[in-house]
Amino acid sequence: MKQTLVICKSLIRTGLLETFRRKEAWVVIFLTILMTFGAYTFTFFGVSGLDIFVKDMALTAVGLFTTIIGSVIATRQIPDDISRRTIFPILSRPITRDQYVVARAVAAFVMTALCFVMMTTVVTLLLAALKLTFGLIFLQYIWLKLMAVMWLSAFGVFLSVTLSQSAAFTLCFMLALGSGAFSRTLLLTVGEGNPAVNWVITFLYGFLPHYALFDTTGKVIYGWKPIPAMVVVSLTIYAITISAFWLYLATRKFRGQSL
Amino acid sequence: MKHPITSIFICAGLLFVSGVSAKVALPDHLIQPSSEGANEVYEEKPTTSIVGEFRTSVASYLYAKAHEYMHGGVVFRAATDTEVANGRRTASHGDSLEAHHGSQETTVIPEQEFDPRSLWGELDRGTQPWMDIRVHGHRDLSEALPLFRMMTWADPHFIEGYEMGSYLVFSSAKNKRVDRAMKFLEEGIANNPGSYRLHKSYGHYALTITKQNELALEHLEKAVSIIEARQLAKRTQRNDSMTEGQQRVAQIEDLEQSQAWNEFIQVLRKLERKEEAIRWSKRCIEVNAPCPSGRRALEVYGVKP
Amino acid sequence: MDIIRVENLCVHYANGRSSHCAVDNLSFGVRAGEIVGFLGNNGAGKSSTIKALMGFQKPSSGSAFLFGENINAVASRQRVGFLPETALYSPYLTPRETLRQYGELSGLSLSEITAVTDAVLEKTGVRSKADVLNRTLSKGMLQRVGLAQALMNRPELLILDEVSSGLDPIGRRDLRTLLLAERERGATIFFSSHQLSEVESVCDRILILNHGRLIAERTIKDIRATEPSLEDYFVRVVSDSMSAETGVSR
């Protein structure tokens, strides 16, 4: 365990250096500011009372860019090592493939989470400067978003050891972004009063990606009351379980893979 | 400090140049599909069509957003046939807003008793904006007003934007200002002089709120003459080959037109223009069979329909 | 005791329904303190053997051992330094940061890493470029960074794949000096290369592979005594092997 943590620490440190030197993090932060401020510029043309609209734009930008950067980072970790052949000197060290996969997923999680936290901090400060604030529910938003990032990182890493890098990114991004739409579509088929159909729907629903379930943007921007603690706890348990499941599959797949 | 200021000036300059270029390059970007020569313009200048599509898409997006704003972010969808038939998941309201959902809308996330997902459903209702559609209220409508301003900027031909926006300006708690509602409609009429719905709405406010009968007459007459000219009544008559959606649109148009006729006849009666009231009442009954105002007017004036 | 022991190793690559045999029933050993050159034409199976030795490629059959332990046991890798064929080290890290990363992955403490890094950078000739991004380095310089990372944990065994790839004449001379110095330190070295003059000047023994099979295993001393040069010997052995194969197939 201690060795895995050491590996995680090393890969996180170098991963972060790389992410910031590639300027990806700065680009998404800049775009977030641009979208937030862009929404606010309507006030310069005489449209007042845009509080919700500005908050909506800001948190939509944060959510979208977190999903993009999270999918990119998670799905490129292992394929990048393979294409650069740096996986060989890494795995020539006394570390197992399982430790490597887990460390890469943890590194992807930390990098994306850091980008998310930076974007959120910038947006919060920017909105505060515009005299727009969020309620207590915002803390729950941050926590659940971090849980979603954990899911995304584990899922992205699993896809990256299963598919080509571009296919893994596309699938990861689409499944994350479209998860809400898939769930809603399945719900449309709810057969009223038909327990058999409902049972099938519930069964299938469990297999869908539930990334959107962690997104409380709607409640935050409209100033809803905080979410019940049990919901937050349940989602946290779900995020940990599903991430562990994807990582288990990823390590199983990667264990026997020829490099 | 010098560099940011220079950058701002450069950005402003570029925006101005691109705006002027767009104006020069796309002089017809606001052309209405129904207007004369629109098809020729679309064929010759595909960019016009693309820009037009973009503008209408932005307006439609903002309109949908405004709907969300009114419901605190709750997302709605069209109700399924089963839901409409049994009426168990359709809207009723806890406030004065008219049945803006019709009976055809419901929330995307179902209520607990209609949700087979058990725990998943609870989590969904816990994290997403959700309310029981059967007994729901609305937020302060003034929050949605800026969106109507933006959507009509994006697409000045977006009639629903002017209609609903003016209604919200008038009815929202903070801005019970009929003058501002009418001003907004004036802008809409200036951009869309051929819209009977905007003339009808304007005439409605003038007739029922500000009691400016002459002004109401002017706009309601215009509305009715547009309806007559376009023979909208005939076009929207029931037709078995219509789809359910088309039938709903036709029903709404029938209702709108019927309201225009009724208020037009009412204002004629208020202004004691007997001959005109009789003539238009007969015409109203001819094209729009129920026409309660027309029948009432003929009854009052002792004329047989 | 053999530091490296390979017994009846076979590596097959599946290609659709057919399968290609890269390493065919290969057996050899490398003793402590030796420098062994692993030679062969392109596609002879050198890299596949090295990959199998490092656990990157699952053998179809046979077995291999490092320090007497099966190659699947990661503990033995603590004592190994490995240089892969033409790796592109993280382009947005500097050589110093790259070495720190590999030091950490080898289980070295930060103080150990700090102590070793400068010496290794000096030894491999990367010191002057230690703090510029890897993406700005030439292929030869990246190969030196690769060598540096392989030396970070002061390994008892160095496995180097195409070690002189991308190096200029001065780089190759430095490499020879480095390999001899490592042997002096007590390291065992097993490397593949196409630079026969270099192999001849540093190796104790060579293994020649053709089409996955071991076709020759001799000491350099023996070759020097009986052959005009290693190059002549290599060409003759490989040609004979190819002719024999063609004859068999006819």
Explain what this protein looks like in three dimensions:
The complex is a heterotrimer of chains A (259), B (305) and C (250). With 259 residues, chain A is an all-alpha fold. Chain A contains eleven helices and no strands. Chain A has one domain. Chain B is mainly alpha-helical. Chain B has a domain at 34-135. The radius of gyration of chain B is 23 Å and the shape is globular. Chain B has helices at 2-25, 38-44, 46-70, 81-86, 119-127, 145-154, 159-171, 178-191, 196-208, 213-230, 232-235, 244-270, 274-287, 292-301; strands at residues 76-78, 105-107. With 250 residues, chain C is an alpha/beta fold. Chain C has one domain (2-249): Rossmann fold. In chain C, the strands form two sheets. Chain C has a six-stranded mixed sheet with strand order 6-7-8-3-9-10, sandwiched between helices. A four-stranded antiparallel sheet of chain C has the order 2-1-4-5. In chain C, helix 2 (95-105) crosses helix 3, helix 2 runs parallel beside helix 4 and helix 3 (110-124) crosses helix 4.
Q: Short description, anyone?
A:
The complex is a heterotrimer of chains A (about 260), B (about 300) and C (about 250). Chain A has about 260 residues and is mostly helical.
Q: Summarize the biggest pleated sheet of chain B.
A: 2 strands, antiparallel
CATH topology of chain C: Rossmann fold
**Uncertain stretches of 5 or more adjacent residues of chain B:** none
Overall pLDDT confidence of chain C: 88
> Assembly state here?
heterotrimer
Tell me the fraction of residues in β-strands of chain C, as a range: 25-35%
SSE order of chain B: HHHEHEHHHHHHHHHH
Number of helices of chain C: 8
Which class best fits the helix and strand makeup of chain B?
mainly alpha
Shape of chain B: globular
Query: Radius of gyration of chain C, rounded?
Result: 18 Å
| Helix residue percentage of chain C | 25-40%
* Shape call of chain C: globular
- The total of beta strands of chain C comes to 10
Number of helices of chain B: 14
The CATH architecture of chain C would be 3-Layer(aba) Sandwich
Low-confidence stretches of chain C: none
Strand order of the largest sheet of chain C: 6-7-8-3-9-10
